[in-house]
Amino acid sequence: MNIARSLLIFLGCISTANAADDGKWFAFGPKQDTSAADSPINLRRLNEKFAGEHGVIAARDGRFIHSASGEAVRFWAVNGPPHELTGDALRQCARLLARYGVNLVRVHGPMFDKDGEPDLAKVRHAQEIVAAMKAEGIYTHFSIYFPLWFTPRADLPWLAGYDGNRHPFAALLFNPKFQEKHRAWLKALFTTPDEKTRKALVDDPAVFGVELQNEDSFFFWTFDEKNIPDPQLRILETHFGDWLKKRYGSIEAASAAWKGLHAPRDAPGEGRMGFRPLWNISHEKSTRDQDTSAFLLEVQTRFYRGAYDFVRQLGFKGLIHDSNWATADPEVLGPLEKLSYTSGDFVDRHGYFECNHQGDNAAWSIRPGHTYIDRSALRFDASEPGKPRQFVHSVMDPHYADKPSMISETTFTRPNRYRSEAPLYFAAYGALQDSDCIVHFAFDGANWAVKPGYWMQQWTLATPAMLGQFPAAALLYRHGLIATGAIVAEVKLNTDDLLHLKGTPLPQDASFDELRLKDVPQGCEVQPGQRLDPLLHYAGCTHVTFTRERGGVNVSDLKPFINRTAQTVTSTTSELKLDYGKGLLVINAPRAQGASGALNSAGKIDLAALTISCDLDLAHVIAVSLDDQPLATSQKILLQVMSEEQASGFATEAVDATTKRITDIGHDPWQVKTLHGSVALKRADARRLKVTALDFNGQPRGTAGTAHEIKLQPATLYYVIEP
């Protein structure tokens, strides 16, 4: 280390996570997992003997169920497995995922080649993945098309106008020839016989479902003439002209109704009418804008319904859903997007908690020179430095049209030190809101590797702070250790109002700062443009329905649960309390108790069955029952502890008070900040309950005293408590 660098570290201008530098971190590098079936952190028992044992997964009464038994099921899932895995490595990966509580994988990749033709090699690999996961009780969900996976070549006859450099945004929604290719991909995936078993995936109940397209929509910013070549736009513009003739009798009559409002690509003489930018549509809301939105919604919904019917005609009995994308305006266009999804079996969404990561290729990589901020979700930290608290998060989960709800891509991105908040955050509030499936992005490696090089990607799940916290988090979420909250808001959206661009009072992706919260109406009828308090998602459940009858909003009295003066939100179940002023979540349910976040701000945390003392400003301590009994009487308890993670050698320098610049991305192995503090069970038999420290794979590594007082060991993440 040179003298200048040493001086900068001494002055606090550069930080480093290398354990050798400050002695406050320990290396996390589990050896290949050889854990026994009865390891306290092995959750394979939660899964079926094989996926599909109790029938195909169906949607009923707003939940996912096993069709043979009718039993409801939640999915704690990952995007994965790594694409390169086959054979024994793939089967080993499946075993690892099952042990960490995963019961579904989202296979996110194309089933076509570079020319858009069905790729049987990819179909064969998909079959191998389904078989490997099925053996471990893990279902498979397919995401087969994303515009960014395809760059149509210049001479492609069914997608004219492309040049091999642009992606076909929106084209699938309206181009009939493209839709034929899309159906060919689906047919190949589901009806190609397996070379060994001769069975096709269409008949395999281990296939949870299929997504028709990923992250594309008429209502997102990519729907723009800059992204869609002229020959493709002409197809859609002609459809719009025909639609207007049917609605008004002629294009001229439509133009008169619009009071002459024009768009640059209007060509009424050719029977074509263009589209105004989405910003104008959602903000100006003219008659033309309303007609445009109605047309686009109709076309988008028609595509989804047609594709849904096609997959059913193939004989597929699993679940089918449409897409998962955000919109250019969550309040005005967001509900139209959700309405188009109601043709599917459930409603999906995506959402990431990001850390203002900036730099070349920062959308998909972490490199020296990039900048970022450390951002806490428990405090609702803003996405930009110096801004007020920002009340939006992907865990906020309205349920639409009485259908199950999935978030098929979500994570807290690296290198944010607060990333370790994520597993318990999703598990606790997912359970409270009765979310049906949470799919963590992305399981891109199964060997706990930092993935060093000249860059790293920011979503890696096989890390101590993420996968390392899955045992307690998955059990808490899947097994219902946190009770479902009461319905605190019921929103009925009149579809005609939506087409008149009046919007929703519960926009899912809209960001509210602390000042905007003061404008939320209390105890009065909600008018267009007004919004409900987003903090209600931390109190209980929200339901949204679409109706042709009069719309309306029914909101519970939130005063007992939301206290803005104290900056706290308490769940309607009283099992969760978030102090967003401090950044502290307290969990106090009969079978799960603990705390997450700034534990040093709370002093001694006194819960129903235990106490926690810890002076770390970022730590997560959770005790969960392993025998389904309350912690007050349970005979087997898992105590799980985590602080924060960094790559070995990771280093930064200060840009300003909140922004950091990466000077070294680091290398293997992962480092975890040293743990300390104590946990004590309140039970009369606490002195007779022995505590065993476990290694990173859940194997015993030595005694840790009794439950009367458990002194947290510096490098131990898991303990089992039993007589």
Task: Describe the overall structure.
By secondary structure, this protein is α+β, with helices and mostly antiparallel strands. Helix content is 21%, strand content 23%. The chain is built from 13 helices and 35 strands. The strands form 7 sheets. It has a 10-stranded antiparallel β-sheet with strand order 18-19-20-21-22-25-26-35-32-33, with helices on one face. Strands 9-8-7-6-5-14-13-10 form an 8-stranded parallel β-sheet. A 4-stranded antiparallel β-sheet has the order 1-28-29-11. Helix 3 (87-99) crosses helix 4, helix 5 runs parallel beside helix 9 and helix 9 packs parallel to helix 10 (334-341). Residues 1-22 have low confidence and may be disordered.
Summarize the SSE layout with pairings.
Elements (H helix, E strand, L loop, with lengths): L2 H8 L3 E3 L2 H4 L2 E4 L28 E4 L2 E4 L8 E5 L7 H13 L4 E5 L11 H16 L3 E5 L32 H16 L15 E5 L18 H19 L2 H7 L20 H7 L2 H27 L5 E3 L12 H8 L5 E7 L17 E3 L25 E2 L4 E8 L9 H11 L4 E4 L29 H9 L8 E8 H5 L41 E7 L4 E4 L6 E2 L4 E3 L5 E4 L4 E6 L2 E6 L7 E2 L3 E4 L5 E7 L11 E6 L2 E4 L2 E4 L4 E6 L2 E7 L4 E4 L8 E5 L5 E7 L3 E2 L6 E5 L1
Parallel strand pairs: 5-6, 5-14, 6-7, 7-8, 8-9, 10-13, 12-16, 13-14, 15-16
Antiparallel strand pairs: 1-28, 2-30, 3-4, 11-29, 15-17, 18-19, 19-20, 20-21, 21-22, 22-25, 23-24, 24-31, 25-26, 26-35, 27-30, 28-29, 31-34, 32-33, 32-35
Helix pairs in contact: 3-4, 5-9, 8-9, 9-10, 11-12
